[in-house]
Amino acid sequence: MNTGCVWMLALNAVSITFGRELARRTQPDGDAVRRLMVTILGKLSIEYGAVLFCGIIGRLDRVFIAGLTAVATALLVLTGRSGRRQASTAMLSAPNPHCSFHNPPTCDRDPIVIASTSVAFILTGVAWLWWFGVGTTRLGWDDYAYHLTQPCLWLQTGRIEPSPLSFQSAFPHGAEVLALWWMIPFGRQSQPDAMAWVGLTALPYAALACLSALLLTRPEAPRSSGGFIASILILTSHPVIETATSFCDVDLALPAFVLAGLALATTPGPRLGNVIGVSLASGLALATKYVALVPVGLIILSISWIDRPASGRRPWATAALVLVAAIAVSGHWFLRNVETYGNPLFPAPVLGLPGVEAISHRTTIAEYVRTFGWWKGMRDVLGVYLDWPASHAALALVGLVAAAGIAVLGRDRFDGTCRRRMFAVTVIAGAVLAVLPWQPMSAGHSATFAASEVHFQSMRFIVVVPMLGWIGLGTAIDSLRRWKWVHRVAAGVALLGAIIGLARTDWTIAAGLATGIVAAACVGGSRIFERVAPVVRSLLERRVRNARAASVVGLLAASVIVATAHSDKRAGAREALLVPFGVDIREGWERLNRMEPARTAGHCPVYVLFGENLQHSPVLIGGPEVDVDATFFASSVPAIDRLPDAEFNARLIQEGVEVFATLRYSFHGKSVSSPREAGWLDASVPFLRLGGDEHMTLWRRSDSTRPAENR
């Protein structure tokens, strides 16, 4: 087995142990859903913390990270076995007389509905495991432009620090740090090897979103049909799947952390345990994207709904504690921007602080409507933001209305905690939509803005809204369980709507399994489900008695999968690198890789300039001072089209550039093709054309002492 694969298995075994121990310590009441959620949050947190700390001190290597993770895990395990553990456990698990969810009444479930929805949930879960666990890592525009660039730079330098390669370097990079966790075991061995398993980041995010749905629909019976239905809709919706098919899954990570924070903040349970879970989820959300500020702020306000101890501590004290902890988790990115740019939210210009003006003025919905008029603006915006599968969109809308109805009118039918939870769901969804018009990039980027189009990928900014709607729908469906056939019909319609939505995607594995899901929903009246239901319920609720044995079996299974799948995943990752934006750069990149290490620049995605083994050193020609708006192309040469030939050539020589690469490609709303390429480089005596094809051309300084190629 590849050495990197062994390191990857070992590192993840340690991080899973950390998460499991944290969940055991903070959720001693044995609730399986909350424990699994905290386990995932703990695993992600130790990975994020270890990689970030080692990157800040300049020791970004697998040995140092493994040692730090192992020490943290050992300390957590040892303190958990000390004599103080009994006292803390008693405090955490003490029942609250003011909480209505202690010793909840038994939930009456329809065996047909619970069987069909649980089977559907298991099938979609298996599809995700197969698709993202064994399938290859996929890359999108932003991945080629900058998501992939940052980890490559960090691996090359061994340090996490501000990058001059594009203004996107100022964004929070929590998701990239978590993606780097999967690259660290392979180091600079090769980009394809390091990228082979990054796609696994989608699985914990999807799991967090589904577990949150299970908890938010009915916390007293989190394995109810409503929770399964909400989870199935999340896993089968085309835009959600699209957010998971990227390098670091940043647009799936954000709603997952938001939902996890909301679920733990509004679910009664061990007070300290829930506070820790909410703090980790909120901190990771803030470390992922600036737009998390609004939902995370609302979650922190809702922290007062956590099960409070009988001592009656004021809610603001808990909220302040969570806020401080969340800032501690995410604070590095904000402090870095204060030091580098003088603005914690750079590149967004806020409160008169310096930023990139083009982000606010030529990328937002508000400016789009002012520029092109109300009628065209609303038509274009709604055409993009309502472009979910019709059945999924309709179900989300019904769910949001149901959530608002439960919050306002459900006094007689629902208990206070459920109503407050649905109120939080409604407020967060409304807040996300309310701030959207002023959110940078909400209408796309400057190129699509200039073309009077709203970019379709901007829809990812509201992924959390339909998720909240489906959670409201699941809650409403569960409330119908008194009326047997109405409950069955509602569940069947929701499942059928989930499957119809799959027609929008080429997710063939899930589409193949859809036949079984449809059958389960449509023939729900069959007596066979009466017999299957107790078995399925038993499997879902059974606790694994020997966790150590299960862990060993899981590690062995993972080892077999990694050993057999790594070569295929590596090949798939390399193919994705060689065909950015659908353009085959195989010939040019192979030539670049045969060269001795050099300082490189180019009109192309920066990751290309690193070389396959990160042997080259990309440099920036031009820069934000030329025209920051042009860096939306995320080129290592922003705005070079606007530089005079003589100045451009002078900068090449000044920066010591030895190799220059040009890549010609076109994408929706974005394209790079340089008619002035010959003018730039042919007029420059030191640079000679090495050759190329219709997509990629290489130029090299003729006065360099390095050999042109290492044959």
Q: In what range is the share of β-strand residues?
A: under 5%
Averaged pLDDT, please?
Answer: 80
Structural class by secondary-structure content:
mainly alpha
Q: Specify the overall morphology.
A: globular
Low-confidence parts: 83-108, 522-526, 623-639, 707-711
The strand order across the widest sheet is 2-1-3-7-6
- Overall number of strands: 7
Q: Give the helix proportion (percent range).
A: 55-70%
Largest sheet: 5 strands, mixed
How big is the Rg?
A: 26 Å
End-to-end Cα distance, whole Å, is 29 Å
Helical stretch tally: 32
Task: Describe the SSE topology.
Blueprint (H helix, E strand, L loop, with lengths): L2 H24 L5 H25 L5 H19 L3 H10 L17 H23 L7 H7 L1 H9 L16 H10 L7 H5 L6 H16 L7 H12 L1 H7 L5 H16 L5 H16 L6 H9 L13 H27 L15 H5 L3 H8 L1 H12 L4 H20 L6 H20 L10 H5 L13 H15 L5 H18 L6 H15 L4 H15 L5 H32 L7 H9 L4 E5 L2 H5 L6 E2 L5 H4 L17 H10 L4 E5 L1 E3 L2 E3 L4 H6 L4 E6 L3 E6 L10
Parallel strand pairs: 1-2, 1-3
Antiparallel strand pairs: 3-7, 4-5, 6-7
